[in-house]
């Protein structure tokens, strides 16, 4: 089944915003985007409204829409919320996971091992793998609201990486952490799952962004 035009526009526009190809506060020129995304006005508007719900785009009234701004406080608050939410989700995943969830997680690890050598350094692949990992853990939590909020926080976090020019960690560097957390979920050890997610986010560039933002704020004040 092929993707709808609005889904394709949403995915590509989200990617451009996350990678800061469209920088914070820049106005979205709908005519230019329709041409570059090869879509009509209606699917583009649908995509923009979805991104607005995720906090990546803001309404400028009659001027249209712009990429959301990013302040040091935004980076810190986003990190705080994502850390707490994802650790909670990891614990729930260990308690509630099903055999089907474990099949998906094991297939995920196998896919990384099969693709890592040829795809390492491919930014699109690296980001897709990491987002899939967090998505699978959220799905295993059995909480239908987890994925919705995680999508928004993940997009904001990755965008913050590129806006702040903090290098991403590669999947190869995170693979052992992925496996550690998945093993904890397999054993239904919620404390170990939360600890593994805490470790993942602690060494993540997301924390470096938050810390950088606070240092920058301190120098200005």
UniProtKB/TrEMBL annotation:
Q: Does the keyword DNA-binding apply?
A: yes
Domain (HTH gntR-type): residue spans on this chain:
3-70
Report keywords, A-Z: DNA-binding, Transcription, Transcription regulation
Q: Gene3D superfamilies from the entry?
A: GntR ligand-binding domain-like, Winged helix-like DNA-binding domain superfamily/Winged helix DNA-binding domain
What's the protein here called?
Answer: GntR family transcriptional regulator
> Which species is the source of this protein?
Albidovulum sediminis
| PANTHER family assigned to the protein according to its UniProt record, in alphabetical order | GLUCONATE OPERON TRANSCRIPTIONAL REPRESSOR (PTHR43537:SF24), TRANSCRIPTIONAL REGULATOR, GNTR FAMILY (PTHR43537)
The reply to whether Lyase figures as a keyword in the UniProt entry is: no
């Amino acid at each position: 089944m092929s993707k709808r035009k609005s889904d394709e526009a949403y995915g590509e526009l989200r990617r451009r915003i996350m990678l800061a190809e469209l920088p914070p506060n820049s106005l979205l020129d709908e005519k230019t985007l329709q041409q570059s995304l090869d879509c009509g006005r209606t699917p583009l508007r649908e995509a923009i409204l979805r991104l607005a719900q995720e906090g990546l785009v803001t309404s400028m009234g009659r001027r249209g829409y712009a990429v959301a701004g990013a302040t040091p406080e935004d980076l810190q608050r986003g990190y705080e919320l994502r850390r707490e939410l994802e650790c909670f989700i990891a614990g729930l995943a260990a308690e509630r996971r099903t055999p089907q969830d474990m099949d998906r997680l094991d297939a995920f690890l196998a896919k990384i091992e099969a693709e890592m050598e040829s795809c390492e350094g491919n930014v699109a692949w690296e980001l897709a793998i990491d987002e899939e990992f967090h998505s699978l853990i959220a799905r295993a939590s059995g909480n239908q609201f987890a994925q919705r909020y995680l999508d928004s926080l993940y997009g904001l976090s990755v965008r913050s990486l590129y806006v702040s020019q903090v290098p991403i960690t590669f999947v190869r560097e995170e693979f052992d952490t992925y496996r550690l957390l998945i093993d904890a979920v397999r054993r239904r050890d919620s404390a170990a799952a939360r600890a593994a997610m805490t470790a993942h986010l602690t060494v993540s560039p997301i924390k470096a962004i938050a810390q950088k933002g606070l240092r920058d704020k301190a120098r200005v004040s």
